[in-house]
């Protein structure tokens, strides 16, 4: 539902074009310097200013945490909490208590969803605890090079497989910028399948769209960013474009349109629903991640950090149009299927090897490094050196380095003695390879600037 008085009128594509009143050399001038880490005096005010979507309870929790620590919290700490604890990442509504007609329901929505597999597990191997779900698959023949760090002969060997299944929505980005929104929806869903267990491989994808009516309709209306017609055309192009360039076919999908008026209010999918899904497979022996141990190395595969996708986890969790245009536009990711393909080639090589060295693996989606790295070291804790992170934009602050959602990156845990062999494969595939930290034994997440080696 949307109040038409609050809508915006664009006469150009706000993601791809800008209005300049004077075209001169100054448009190329960069006078910005990285912001220092600073302490937040008023958390509630900072929450509104940055579009962090923190609830009153969460603001109160952070204020109590600040008192307990005996100091003000930093911008990075509050921003980080808003991303990892966002509705998008934590599913607080699905996990919450439901009270209907003053009666509290016995189960949450998520418990009801999980009930199906609990009562009918059938051939289920893993669900609701990883980036994908796995079902038992057949014995198959793997056709792959004997080694991946140099040219080598291909060989055939039989392996037991598991089938991966994944689906996720990418609604907010596709509403704001349909092409990149749907492209990164498909790309992110592929990365989730790559990150299943100790690495799994994608095979084919699907895409579903739900919008208001795309044709001229009964109601005169203005749209927040894109019309339903623009969304359907651009989003379809974006999802297909990513799949084509990455090398995964988009094999099926569907479209549902809906509008309704009642009591002078218009209802419809003003915030498009974009559902990306897919199937793949993994070696059955790699269907479960290993338990991280202290002093294992944290490696990032993929591209540099840019001021892209800032706050996407939080902004995706509320009604589109709640925040200023700059906040919402800055929260949209950009697709880079070629980079993702390089990274996927490395992961495929490790997954097809006799001794897969990956301890654990996660993709960089909503929340960027904050979510990926915190999940990798959740059971141990981790220390990260910001001077080792690849910086594409020298004006990034510490908060922007750890929180951006630049595409396309994967985080993996490796034992020290496996670093060099994996690095050789990455160099051969031209996939950027960075050692950014290591696991600890204190269950604390620490980002710091050390002297660059």
- The whole-number mean of residue pLDDT values reads 88
Separation, N- and C-terminal Cα atoms = 54 Å
Based on Cα principal axes, name the global outline: globular
Helix-and-strand structural type: alpha+beta
Q: Proportion of β residues?
A: 15-25%
- Compute the number of strand runs: 16
Spans of 5+ residues with little confidence (pLDDT < 50)? 1-7
Helix tally?
15
- Helical content class: 25-40%
Oligomer: single chain
Rg is 23 Å
Could you characterize the architecture of this molecule?
The protein is 31% helix and 23% strand. It is of the alpha+beta class and 453 residues long. A 6-stranded mixed β-sheet has the order 3-4-5-10-6-7. The protein has a 6-stranded mixed β-sheet with strand order 12-14-11-15-13-16. The N and C termini lie far apart (54 Å).
Describe the secondary-structure layout.
Elements: H1 43-50, H2 56-69, H3 75-84, H4 87-90, H5 92-95, E1 99-100, E2 103-104, H6 109-119, E3 124-126, E4 133-145, E5 154-169, H7 171-176, H8 178-194, E6 201-211, H9 228-246, E7 250-257, E8 259-262, E9 265-268, E10 273-283, E11 297-302, H10 312-315, H11 325-330, H12 337-351, E12 360-363, H13 369-376, E13 382-385, H14 398-403, E14 409-414, H15 419-428, E15 433-439, E16 445-448
Parallel strand pairs: 6-7, 13-16
Antiparallel strand pairs: 1-2, 3-4, 4-5, 5-10, 6-10, 8-9, 11-14, 11-15, 12-14, 13-15
Descriptors:
453 residues, alpha+beta, six-stranded mixed sheet, 15 helices, 23% strand, globular, disordered N terminus
